[in-house]
């Protein structure tokens, strides 16, 4: 039987999320590929329960490496790349199936809008919506450079837009957010080391004061993050602090190198 739609997912300790993610796609996906970074919880067991083809590897510092591994293993003509904390809505599912039935040969990939939930609230403002990401594409027509945690997919051809949403539940608790933030600031610090950012008075003022304030005001006031209430304030505040924390970690790396 011809494989038409493959789902590609990279995971690590996602037992709280992977079930809901796979439940939303199990009935209509022709193939589910899960690349696991040696999880220590029940992630793999749950994935197999939903019929996923699972592959065990190491948990890479840049998680996009394992995402690309999952993409490369997929055999479908079309690939939907998901994160374990994302859920495909019924509207998006119907739209994907319709696009495949009525193929536009010029379009090789599609942007999908995401609803990002932060501390239990959908962030409608702060520049967080519609948060378009390329996730649905023809095999071989999109890839991840695997150089940065915040990178977008590169497309070999023309991209279109879908209207159905992905529901993104990345931060169910503040503790989970701090865990993620610690990893992301460490990656940013390593990028700064690679780029040989100078450490002097100007760079210290920039990364510890100016850049955090600039980011906070952009998210909270310019993009009206204040309309998202307390979660909007916390998101804007810690988005700004990302720069100062990363710079401090970078200074530590510089000193020890």
- Counting helices, strands and paired strands, the structural category is alpha/beta
Helix-residue proportion: 40-55%
CATH topology of the largest domain: Spore Coat Polysaccharide Biosynthesis Protein SpsA, Chain A
Query: What does the oligomeric state look like here?
Result: single chain
Mean pLDDT: 94
Q: Count all strands and give the number.
A: 13
| CATH class identity of the largest domain | Alpha Beta
Key words describing this protein structure:
257 residues, Spore Coat Polysaccharide Biosynthesis Protein SpsA, Chain A, 4-stranded mixed β-sheet, 7-stranded mixed β-sheet, alpha/beta, 2 domains
Written description of the protein model:
Helices cover 41% and strands 23% of the residues. It has 257 residues and is of the alpha/beta class. It folds into 2 domains: 5-170, Spore Coat Polysaccharide Biosynthesis Protein SpsA, Chain A, CATH 3.90.550; 174-256, no CATH class. The longest helix is centred in the C-terminal third of the chain and has 28 residues, at 229-256. The termini are far apart. The mean pLDDT is 94.
